[in-house]
Amino acid sequence: MEDRSSKHLVLILAREFASNLATPMMLTDEEGTLIFFNEAAEQIIGGTLAEAGELPFAEWSARAAPRTADSELLPLERRPAAIALHERRAAHERFVVTGLDGADHEISVTAFPLFAHADEFLGVVAIFWGA
Amino acid sequence: MTIWGCRGSVPTPGRDTIRYGGNTSCVEVSIGDGTVVVLDAGTGIRALGDDLQRRSIRRIHLLLTHLHLDHLEGLRFFGPMWDPEVELDIWGPPSPLVALRDRIARSFSPPLFPIDLGHVPAQVTFHDTPRGPWSIGAAALRAGFVVHPGPTVGYRIESGGAIFAYIPDHEPALAGVILGRSRDWVSGGSLAVGADVVLHDAQYSEDEYPSRVGWGHSSVAAAVAFAQVVEARRLVLFHHDPGHDDARLEELEERARTVAGTNGLAPPALAREGTVLELG
């Protein structure tokens, strides 16, 4: 049978939740690929979803260049989305990022993993606020 | 494919529903190699059971979309359940909390029913639907979670070059607009893509739907939009509202045909008890 896989229902519902949320929110798949962010997130990400497209984790993480207020690059083990992706647990941190448009923003991020079942990891939700 | 029940929510017998039927969801799919697949166990399964016994069918696969009563209430009166020579494989959506057998067993226990599931004579085996494709006889199947309250799946069945999608309880509009969205992001999209026939929830009129958002069902317009976005060839309107008599259903069928227009989708048709569709 031809593989006709599409987004899991949990991701579809998470996207719809984000679409109706005034708080910036982004969504990755199980590999960390950025698959959606809402309109509220556009100002911080520095572009629209149509402009950004789906971005692999390494690419969007590198572009954002998360760093401390002292301009020290934030290690992966302190980045909430990376923690949710690799350690499968929730995390929170405050740091500075650079948007796709080159503008810097100080933000607070809370990220958590999405599971459909205990052994079925689907992706990561990250909600963030301008600090 | 034979429709044995297409009413939603609750059985609705009577003279006002005689053309389309009052039994709740049950569809039989007979595969070319003799495999019998039954979709859902609404009250339509009682008459199907009699028919299967007349045909001496001893191996049956029952695929449940979910465990709401209108999809399960006929199981206790399914004749093959009470025949020790019958092997019955029951497939259903996995739940993160309670095993499929234990969830079904609730309807085989007091005060709902006098006989415990463990005392059913047939050789019954329970299976969670796999996350990937699987096969039953000559049929290739896929199950996928869809928008409906509680763990609910739809099914895709391919055999002999024909594709059939069964999504009887489904509210894809709850997860955003349907038309114009990438199919990847439409609930149930991968189950029904390119199907020869999609049997889909169309319980409400467009006027009724706004007061029933979140109940897990679709308007006829949403059903048409779903069939169009998955590029199905034919849409069968299913899960008729118990409050809709035959005349009202025919108005909804006409509305569905108007919404569908002429863009490749055959004119949508109402599911009707006793309808037999040849696929492939």
Task: Give an account of the 3D structure.
The complex is a heterodimer of chains A (131) and B (280). Chain A has 131 residues and is α+β, with helices and mostly antiparallel strands. Chain A has helices at 9-19, 39-45, 49-52, 57-64, 80-86; strands spanning 25-28, 34-37, 91-98, 104-117, 120-130. Chain A is built from five helices and five strands, in the order H-E-E-H-H-H-H-E-E-E. Chain A has a five-stranded antiparallel sheet, with helices on both faces. Chain A is globular. The mean pLDDT of chain A is 92. Chain B is of the alpha/beta class. Chain B has one domain: Metallo-beta-lactamase, Chain A (4-Layer Sandwich). Helix content of chain B is 16%, strand content 23%. Chain B has helices at 44-54, 100-105, 189-192, 220-229, 246-260; strands at residues 2-5, 26-30, 36-39, 59-63, 87-92, 123-128, 134-136, 139-145, 153-159, 162-167, 197-201, 235-238, 269-270. Chain B has a seven-stranded mixed sheet with strand order 7-8-9-10-11-12-13. The longest helix of chain B is centred in the last third of the chain and has 15 residues, at 246-260. The N and C termini of chain B lie close together (11 Å). Chain A binds chain B through residues 1, 3-10, 12-13, 15-16, 19, 116-118, 120, and chain B through 94, 96, 131, 133, 140, 142, 144-147, 156, 158, 174-176, 183-187, 189-191, 193.
Cα end-to-end separation of chain B = 11 Å
CATH class of chain B: Alpha Beta
Main sheet of chain B, how many strands, which sense, barrel?
Answer: 7 strands, mixed
Q: What name does the CATH topology of chain B carry?
A: Metallo-beta-lactamase, Chain A
| Mean of pLDDT of chain B | 96
Give the SSE order of chain B as H and E letters.
EEEHEEHEEEEEHEHEHE
List the strand order in the largest sheet of chain A: 2-1-5-4-3
CATH architecture call of chain A: 2-Layer Sandwich
User: What is the CATH superfamily of chain B?
Assistant: Ribonuclease Z/Hydroxyacylglutathione hydrolase-like
CATH topology of chain A: Beta-Lactamase
Shape of chain A: globular
Low-confidence stretches of chain A: none
Number of strands of chain A: 5
**What structural category do the secondary elements of chain A indicate?**
alpha+beta
- Number of beta-strand segments of chain B: 13
| Outline type of chain B | globular
Helix content of chain A: 25-40%
Low-confidence stretches of chain B: none
End-to-end Cα distance of chain A, whole Å, is 50 Å
> Oligomeric form of this entry?
heterodimer
